[in-house]
């Protein structure tokens, strides 16, 4: 690179704004220099937490370069303006582009792309598939366009899974619903899977296009993906992030007839059922808490309900693991664990891999206990399939994609 460039990464929610700055240095390294979060935008309880990783002299910051300010921020524009005030204290800051996390790209936006009027129109069009996410993502784009007159790039959660074959993404519904409404399986956490695919290939010293793996992105939101030749061939989430694994508050796979049963016997409307399945189910509904750490601790202490919730969660994860072993015909280089639970829960990793030696999956309990923040190989020496803990970094991936798109279009 001829000069150092920085990318601002934005993730706009309905009442929040998460941001980070990555510097692309001349020698080819990438360094995160800023991270921040604005919460409760549009309320009297709004606040901003900003952290400089360079030690920039920010008014009101503590010795670690962090500042937290409770202040009323009326909308996303005001929030980003406030964050920008802090960013401008960074030395030699040159924002070359802004990368936006966008949840749903549908079938028309299947790769990271430069944002223009057409792209914004398609993001709006796909809001029907992600009504809670795409509209605030679009607000973030429009605000950033006003404040930063540089290339804006959209990076989609769904795009990584656009390589799924028809038989993997098509539902057993009347085909007309797919043609008319785009009802099919899309998958999510794609930015994480893109990062994990590249990083796992690097760790195994393989070209990404030669990598076959089963990857668990398991945090509050949880999914699993089958990767063949570096591409997604199946994933557990569907037309929305509700399908698939049991999650913190989402139920994952259930019989669709429950919608009618709950209407008939509990008087719940479709909207009520949607709220129940997305916000009141999963670990929360089974155990009373959405925190896997608490569930594991209570289960170890003999709490039967927590023990059941944990077993239900693991049972569903192993069900998908078995299916994807079949999809990949047993030709798997690695099982990868990532995100909050995947990176931190010794117990969950051990339970998912327990008793799978005949399938070539052998976990070393001592390594599993000792794996640190940077992750590592937790499989036994000689295990045919590696078992890896690989910390994900979706923001870094968005920054990398942003620079790649900018450089590609010239």
Describe this entry's structure for a reader.
The chain is an alpha/beta fold and 410 residues long. It has 2 domains: 5-156, ATPase, nucleotide binding domain (Nucleotidyltransferase, domain 5, 2-Layer Sandwich); 206-394, 2-Layer Sandwich (Nucleotidyltransferase, domain 5), CATH 3.30.420. Helices cover 38% and strands 20% of the residues. The chain is built from 15 helices and 14 strands. The strands form 2 sheets. It has an 8-stranded mixed sheet, sandwiched between helices. The chain has a 6-stranded mixed sheet with strand order 11-10-9-12-14-13, sandwiched between helices. A hairpin with a 2-residue loop joins strand 10 and strand 11. The mean pLDDT is 91.
**What percentage of residues falls in helices of 4 or more residues?**
25-40%
Low-pLDDT residue intervals, each spanning 5 or more residues: none
Order of helices and strands: EEEEEHEEHHEHHHEEEHHHHHEHHHEEH
How far is it from the N-terminal to the C-terminal residue, by CA? 13 Å
**Per CATH, which architecture of the largest domain?**
2-Layer Sandwich
Would you state the CATH class of the largest domain?
Answer: Alpha Beta
Assign the structural class, choosing from mainly alpha, mainly beta, alpha/beta, alpha+beta, or little secondary structure: alpha/beta
Overall pLDDT score = 91
CATH topology group of the largest domain: Nucleotidyltransferase, domain 5
- Report the β-strand fraction as a percent range: 15-25%
Query: Which sequence of strands runs across the widest sheet?
Result: 5-4-3-2-1-6-8-7
What is the name of the CATH superfamily of the largest domain? ATPase, nucleotide binding domain
Number of domains: 2
Catalytic activity: acetate + ATP = acetyl phosphate + ADP
Binding site for Mg(2+): 11, 394
Organism: Klebsormidium nitens
GO biological process, one term: acetate metabolic process
């Amino acid at each position: 690179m001829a000069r150092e460039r920085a990318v601002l990464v934005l993730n706009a929610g309905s009442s929040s704004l998460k941001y980070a700055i990555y510097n692309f240095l001349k020698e080819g390294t990438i360094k995160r220099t800023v991270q921040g979060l604005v919460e409760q935008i549009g309320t009297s309880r709004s606040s901003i937490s900003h952290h400089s990783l360079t030690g920039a002299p920010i008014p009101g910051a503590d010795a670690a370069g962090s500042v937290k300010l409770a202040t009323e921020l009326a909308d996303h524009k005001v929030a980003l303006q406030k964050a920008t005030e802090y960013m401008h204290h960074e030395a030699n800051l040159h924002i070359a582009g802004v990368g936006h996390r966008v949840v749903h790209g549908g079938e028309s936006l299947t790769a990271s792309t430069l944002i223009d009027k057409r792209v914004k129109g398609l993001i709006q069009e796909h809001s029907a598939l992600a009504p809670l996410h795409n509209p605030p993502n679009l607000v973030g784009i429009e605000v950033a366009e006003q404040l930063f007159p540089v290339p804006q790039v959209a990076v989609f959660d769904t795009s990584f899974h656009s390589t799924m074959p028809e038989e993997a993404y098509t539902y057993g519904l009347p085909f007309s619903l797919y043609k008319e409404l785009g009802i099919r399986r899309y998958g999510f956490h794609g930015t994480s899977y893109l990062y994990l695919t590249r990083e796992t290939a690097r760790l195994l010293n393989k070209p990404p296009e030669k990598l076959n793996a089963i990857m668990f992105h398991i945090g509050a939101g949880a999914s699993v993906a089958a990767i063949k030749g570096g591409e997604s061939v199946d994933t557990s989430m569907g037309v929305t992030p509700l399908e698939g694994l049991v999650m913190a508050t989402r139920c994952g796979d259930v019989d669709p007839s429950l919608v009618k049963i709950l209407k008939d016997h509990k008087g719940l409307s479709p909207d009520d059922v949607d709220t129940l399945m997305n916000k009141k189910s999963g670990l929360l509904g089974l155990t009373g808490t959405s925190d896997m750490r608490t569930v594991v601790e209570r289960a170890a202490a003999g709490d039967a309900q927590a023990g059941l919730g944990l077993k239900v969660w693991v049972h569903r994860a192993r069900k998908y693991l078995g299916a994807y072993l079949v999809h990949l015909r047993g030709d798997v280089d690695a099982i990868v664990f990532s995100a909050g639970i995947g990176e931190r829960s010794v117990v969950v990793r051990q339970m998912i891999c327990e008793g799978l030696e005949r399938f070539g999956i052998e976990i070393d309990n001592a390594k599993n206990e000792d794996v640190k923040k940077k992750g590592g190989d937790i499989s036994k020496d000689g295990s045919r399939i590696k078992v890896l803990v690989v910390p994900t970094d979706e923001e870094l991936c968005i920054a990398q994609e942003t620079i790649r798109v900018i450089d590609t279009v010239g």
